From TrEMBL, chain B:
Family: Belongs to the ABC transporter superfamily. Macrolide exporter (TC 3.A.1.122) family.
One Gene Ontology molecular-function label: ATP hydrolysis activity
GO CC terms of this entry: membrane protein complex
UniProt entry keywords in alphabetical sequence: ATP-binding, Nucleotide-binding, Translocase, Transport
Domain ABC transporter: 2-232
CDD domains cross-referenced by the UniProt entry: ABC_MJ0796_LolCDE_FtsE
Gene3D superfamilies named among the record's database cross-references: P-loop containing nucleotide triphosphate hydrolases
InterPro entries per UniProt: AAA+_ATPase, ABC_transporter-like_ATP-bd, ABC_transporter-like_CS, MacB-like_ATP-bd, P-loop_NTPase
UniProt keyword annotation of ATP-binding present: yes
Record lineage: Bacteria, Pseudomonadati, Bacteroidota, Sphingobacteriia, Sphingobacteriales
Keyword Nucleotide-binding among UniProt keywords: yes
Protein name: ABC transporter ATP-binding protein
Amino acid sequence: MRNLWKNKGFSLINIGGLAIGLASCMILLLYVVYEFGYDKQYKNYKSTYIAYTNMKANGKTFSWAWTPGLLSQELKENVTGVSNSARSSYPISLLIGNGENKLKNKGMFVDPAYLKIFDFDFIDGTSDNILQNINTVILTKSLAKKLFGNHSSINKIVKLDNLEPLKVEAVIDDIPQNSSLTFDYLMPWKLYEKRETWTKKQGWGSNFCLTVVQLQNSNTLAQVNTSIKDLFHRMDKDQENELFLHPLSKWHLYGDFENGKSVGGKISQLKIFLLLAICILLIACVNFMNLSTSRSEKRAKEVGVRKAIGSSRKSLISQFILESTLLSFIGTVVAFILLEISLPYFNNLLNINLIIQYNDWRYWLTLICLILFTGLIAGSYPAFYLSSFEPVKVLKGFSIKAGSAFSVRKVLVVFQFVFASCLIVCTSVIYQQLNYIKNKPLGYNSNGLVQLSAEGNLKNLQKINLLRERLVKAGAVTNVSTLSMSLSNGGNNTSGISWPGKNPNTSVLFNNRAIGYDFVETIGAKMVEGRSISKQFEKDSNSVIFNEAGIKAMGMKNPIGKKIKWDTGENVIVGVMKDFVIDNPFQKVEPMILYSAFKDNVSVILLKLNPSANVTASLSKIDEIVKEINPDYPIDREFVNQSFEQKFENEKLLGTLSNWFGGFAIFISCLGLLGLALFMAEQRKKEISIRKVLGASTGNILTLLNKDFIKLVAIANVIAFPLAYVIINQWLSAFEYRVAISFLPFSLAIVISVLIAILTVSIQSIKVAKANPIDALKYE
Amino acid sequence: MIRIENLEKVYKTEEVETTALNGINLHVKEGEFVSIMGPSGCGKSTLLNVMGLLDKPESGSYKFIDTELLTLNDRERSNFRKRNMGFVFQNFNLIDELTVFENIELPLIYNKIPTAERKKLVNEIIERMNIVNRSGHFPQQLSGGQQQRVAVARALVTKPKLVLADEPTGNLDSSHGNEVMELLCELNETGTTIVMVTHSSHDASFSNRIINLKDGHVISEKINKSRNEELI
Ligand SMILES: Nc1ncnc2c1ncn2[C@@H]1O[C@H](COP(=O)(O)OP(=O)(O)OP(=O)(O)O)[C@@H](O)[C@H]1O
Ligand SMILES: [Mg+2]
């Protein structure tokens, strides 16, 4: 105890490093546990599956969780092993209101069986006989509260889209954040069929809903998957798509498919974080060991004397272990404080809500294991190492020059810096990649481009024309157009397009979008040839535009004026657009066909803000005019570049986290280096003094001391580079567009790590280098 | 060559203040061999350290030829020291990690002598010191006398004007001690000024002049006639 206090600085560094390491590790573990907990809140999650469709097109297999509406019933009735099945729509943002209290919230349309598969927590009502009636709804707690305040909402009527009166049948607890399906209310599938009448008539080739399946026994998955593989083909000879079930518990983390097989997904990122957590903890332990050992070495004489006067080896070991356990305990307490302080910030950063589960025994178990592990690893080495000193040797004149302890410590420092430099390389490549993708031309100009969601009156083409006239007249915008899907979302696609010379055996998938007049001009895209669809050409109803990728996929020369067949209709190609990015900026632009919007296939209205007008003024003008034309709906608009930004969230998250925790890891490594430098300088005090007497300047001495460390750091870099290369190459390989790995990240790693090493070592040794040499030489 | 006037040095620790040097006046002529003697703790080493610019006195003046050294800053002191002074310590103070050759070479490196010349100078001195076959050894592999010869060689290799020796024979038996004393005498004969601290009147008898310190004062000075006659 007295020793800890006597070496305040040392103890501080030691505890601080350990605390930061532990806190980082715990935060990362909390996050990893959070991610692993995805979709596992439901009692039957192990036997619950999501139906996936594999579709071969454009020479590859697309796998998605969209299925025909007919599937659910067929599975339930005719496939052995399936105990239950339900359809659901994907969450849709719709207006829901209690009188004038209207909110836009996410709703889902589901079969009643859905509520049997997922055991939601019913606060009011039960899962029996629910959503049978077409005009019913289930609210989540927080939505009920928003709509009805503290009053009961059961049997009250809410209005969907200002249209449909729905009776509240039940209130369920809010869906946990780590759930793939997020919604605020559930409505019957029947209502969906009523609203979207086309869904009723769809056959086995039309994939528009999510099908969740429950098996009697999760062991039969393989069997069931074999038996349903060709189900689509059996039901409809024209269908070549294949069907398979993907476990609900893997839905979130294993979301990537290649050739119809699951190939991981977010799990790889999670593994990186797990690795990061373990490595940070190890680094912190290494540090602890390093510092404790060098500190105790200063006490080697004391140990020698103690042993000489008969202190047993055992009591020495227990004394050291006690000391290090005390330190690690204090470290843990500090780590908790750090954790509690930083969690809100971290949650804010990740936009999630991690909390420390103080009342969960598993949490405490993990914590205790963590502490024991740390204490044992960190504390035992110095204890055993020191207590094994031969008293005679120590007293005779203790010198550990190239001794084992020192080289072990060198290895530890190398280990730390391997990690640090790996992190620097990886982080900078992640950063480069992120920038690369972000700066990749979109093919259109997203600056000042606003998407307005088309609801109520704004679904009406006449009203849209009115809106266009008024907005342009007001000078708020220069162009207005429409699109059948948000620019930043995926949407419909079709393989039903044929053209002269098409190989009947191959299937080409085209994204299809309905566009309004002046679409190309509004988004600032370019035409390669031909023309865009505009008001001048009143009879544009069968004109289509392809993007370059589409023309290339068809292998068409001189496409303008050529005729294509789409399902049953015949269309004329009037223009070719330069490729532009929709939905996924990480992937190659897929073939796309654009046609003139008619009737109600408008989901967003695109507004190009007037570049010469003040943005705020333009926006308020827009809001004013939109409200006038469409008074029943709240205004729902967004900047396209902002919604695009959200696409990078995963990568940004990875970048931010590796920045932060990489920073911590480097910081802790520095502490370790500091300890080693402290020890080295102490160790070489006499030599340094002699050199100073002989005329060495402070600079000479610093160079001398730094040389060894730079050597260590250089070795660490040499080890780290291939490692980092493999890791980051692996990470990059998941991207279709990726930066070439250049020398830059590696040189950055060298510069940063060497700089850090020099700074740390110099800060410490400058004291020794500047000290009066005679003090060290005087008494031996 | 050296004029020290009214030198005062006080060590302050938490508990006590020790006046190690209390108004020392000392002149040393060029080519002189001076011994400093006195009881333990009287300030001999302190005086030597101050003369070697390894320690700063509180007050007084220290002129080397015509330069006042006490007003120099750290860098100037260090530069002056490495050009003009050589040190020999009681406990040799060789660097254990370096070979004999490297130990001797060290001051030349800090004096920025080019490699080729360094080699030449070191080899010369190694020959003169009669330790040629030891040049690749580490200090731990040498006897005390040999180590001290290496230390002397190191002090001399830069051809300093002044050599300061603090009990150079203190850790040696009499025969090894004599070897070292003879070395110093030879050195003195080639014109190097030497100031040596010693407890042994035998060693002191090699010098031209013996200065007796007590409690930080010079209490007496004795010219060593036999040596002086020899010199003349
Ligand atoms: N760093 C220091 N701090 C405090 N006091 C010191 C320090 N160095 C020396 N002293 C004191 O100064 C006085 C002179 O010390 P010095 O080493 O010069 O004696 P010395 O004559 O060389 O003795 P010895 O013959 O034992 O080597 C002593 O009383 C000593 O205790
Ligand atoms: Mg002394």
